[in-house]
Each structure stands twice: as C-alpha cells, then as structure tokens.
Write a structure and sequence with these properties.
Order of helices and strands: HHEEHHHEEEHEHEHEHHHHEHEHH
Strand content: 5-15%
Oligomer: single chain
Largest sheet: 8 strands, mixed
Structural class: alpha/beta
Helix content: 40-55%
Strand order of the largest sheet: 3-4-6-5-7-8-9-10
C-alpha cells in the first residue's frame, strides 16, 4: 500500500478538497501563481499532498488580501528566488502587518456601526428611558428576560454595548446606559465631573431603579473601574461582577506610561486629535497581540470628524484621567464575587497589564476571553458566550 503522503489526485479531487473550481486552479497555474503539477501519461494533472496543502495556503492568503504577485513568490512559482524560506517569512510578516492594520480599521468601523445600530434602535423602539440625578439625567435602555444584568462602560454606553446586549438578551434582562456626558446623557451646566465616584453613584441609582437587591454586572475598560468603586461603596448591590480590562495605570510601576497618559489628557481640550493619537499609541488598545506578540509601533490614525473630536475632548479631557489614575480599594474588593478577565489578543497592552496587576493583588486568576480591549463590541457573540459562565448560576 502506498503512503498517504505519496498519493496523487486529479484536479477534480483538489477542487472538492479546497473549494476552488477547476477552471480557477487552471487560471492560477497559467498566471504563474501556483507551480504546474506533474502530469500522467495521458497528460492529466496529478497533484501530490504537498501540492494540495500549498494551494490550500494560497486560498487563505488570497482571502486575506495578499496580492497575487506576492502569492506567486510565496508558492515558489517565482523560480528566481534563491532562498524561498527567507522570502516566505518576509512575505508572511509583511502580510500579517497588513491584515492586523485592516482588522484594526474594521474594529473602528464596527464601533461606528454599533453606535448607528443603537441610534436606529432608539428610533424604532422610542426614546431611551431617563433617570433623573441631582445634576444630570442618565439615559438607559433594557431588553430581554431573566436575571438582571448591567453592562457598564466608560466611555462606552448604550451604543457600544448594542450588539453585546442583543446577544445576552436571550438569557438576561440586560440594562445599558450612557454614562454622564456620553450619548443621550448629555453634558449639562453644573454637572459634576465624570469621576469613578460619580459614575458609581449614577450606577447605584440605576440599579435601585430596577431592584433593591444585588444584580449581575459586566464592566469593560473604564466601566470596570466604575464597578470597583460601586463594590467599594455599595457591596450589597453586587451579586456578581465581571471586570474586563480596567485600565488602571495607577497599579503599574511605570513612570513613563503615567507621564505620557497625563500629557495626552492635558492636550485633549486644545488638540483632541493629538490626544487621541497619543493615548492610542500608549494604550495599544486597537492592536491584536497574542502571548508572543507585542504591539507594533506608532500607527497614524485618520483625521477624526468634528463630532468625534468633541467626544474626545470630554472623554480624554475629563473622564479618562480620573479613571486610569483611580486607586482601587483592594481590601474592600477582596472577597466579593468578582471575576477578572482580559482579551486573548491584548497581551502586553496597558489595560491587560493593569488587570494582571489587579488580579495579583486580589489573589484572583486572570481569565482570557475572545478579542482584544474592544472585544465586547468587536466580537460580541464570542464575548457573550465567554461571559455567561463567568456570571455564574
């Protein structure tokens, strides 16, 4: 019996295995994108297992947008290459960077789409409900049936959680709200600054609006910091809380990072575009990094529209500083039903580093969940599936 590695198959079999039409395979061969296979005595193409795997790789590269000229070099159809292994490594490294850049662009686009989904949902279902506070009004929405679950962000509000709320509404009564100064909870004269203390007080009032007892919470980014303050001030309200990547620079012994963050926040009022760029670079929150990867260097962001600039004047100029420099009360949090998680693609990024430090102080494991820092909005279905067991029975 011949070894499976030596098996020769025809073009129809390759087509069925790979999912490319025979005419497409012939076209790639004519264009020099794949090497010509051997032929039998009747002139029919005969592909080895190695040929099939090379074509399979070609399909993956093509689906991720690698130029055909680069694919031709990668597959070895370009016989002018003296060291194919070195060239293939260079081609794949360059292409990975292009794919990562594209994925980061798509994440930003998904964030905009999520906001529009929330806008149109409001138009269809009516305006959000309102909670009057002493110095402002908080907009909130609720959907689904089941245990009460609050999704908490800062600056993320109802728009940022629209897709995740939809995914979780089959199991929970999901409540989302716009933190003070965000979305429909607009800035008003005399409103107190959006510190973790003020945001936690708003959240406590919202929880009381629904129930006088404990509830479930998922907090992402600044929302996880809000939950730390809620747990300190109102532990009775916390049935269980999942904290995803609280960006606590205060827990990192990193003077350079602290100074860069403070400089970005200070620039927000006069030059929000520069502030956004600087905070993006230092946080690396838009990147996708596994355990053996570090965020790439500076990546220039596109010019932000006026609306986004105004939002970041507020977020980076007023909300972000008190959030990232917040000092959590470790003893008050210890023993509460809290789970800490971070993106499986957030390694070596600011927020994951901070969450790792918090986990060490609390003596809790750091649980990997899908996506990066913005996984809740970028991969909502996968993120939702990871949240359900963490919220417990």
């Amino acid at each position: 019996m011949s070894d499976e590695a030596d098996e020769l198959v025809g073009i129809a079999d390759v087509s069925a295995r790979i999912g490319l039409a025979p005419d497409t395979l012939r076209y790639f061969e004519r264009q020099g994108i794949v090497p010509s296979p051997r032929r039998d005595s009747a002139g029919r193409r005969r592909y080895t297992t190695a040929d099939v795997e090379l074509i399979r790789m070609l399909v993956h590269l093509r689906e991720t947008g690698m130029p055909l000229a680069d694919i031709a070099q990668f597959t070895g159809a370009d016989d002018r290459v003296t060291d194919p292994a070195v060239l293939r490594l260079e081609l794949l490294t360059a292409h990975r960077r292009r794919v990562q850049d594209r994925r980061e662009e798509l994440d930003r686009a998904l964030d905009v789409i999520a906001r529009k989904i929330a806008d149109y949902s409001d138009r269809i279902s009516g305006s959000p409900e309102r909670l009057d506070r002493p110095d402002c009004t908080i907009a909130f929405s609720a959907q689904g049936e089941g245990p009460l679950l609050f999704l908490v962000g800062a600056p993320a509000g109802r728009a940022g959680f629209a897709a995740l709320a939809h995914e979780l509404a089959g199991r929970f009564r999901v409540v989302t709200h716009d933190p003070r100064g965000i979305g429909a909870s607009r800035v008003v004269p005399g409103m107190a600054a959006p510190t973790p203390e003020a945001l936690a007080a708003d959240l406590a009032a919202l929880v009381d609006r629904f129930t006088g007892g404990p509830a479930l919470f998922v907090g992402t980014s600044g929302g996880a910091v809000t939950l730390l303050e809620l747990a300190r001030r109102h532990p009775r309200l916390v049935g269980r809380a999942v904290l995803h990547e609280p960006p606590l620079v205060s827990l990192l012994d990193d003077v350079d990072l602290t100074e860069r963050a403070a400089a970005a926040f200070a620039a927000a009022e006069s030059d929000p575009q520069r502030a956004v760029q600087e905070f993006f670079d230092l946080s690396a929150a838009g990147h996708h990094t596994g355990p053996d990867e570090r965020p790439s260097g500076h990546m220039t962001l596109p010019e932000l529209p006026a609306e986004e600039l105004d939002k970041n004047r507020y977020f980076l100029g007023r909300m972000a500083g008190p959030t990232v420099f917040y000092e959590p009360d470790i003893e008050a949090t210890r023993g509460l039903p809290v789970a800490l998680c971070a993106g499986a693609l957030s390694h070596h990024q600011m927020a994951r580093r901070a969450t790792h430090a918090l986990a060490g102080r609390l003596g809790l494991p750091l649980i990997d969940v899908p996506g990066n820092h913005v996984g809740a909005s970028a991969v909502p279905a996968e993120f939702a599936r990871a949240m359900v067991p963490l919220l417990g029975p």
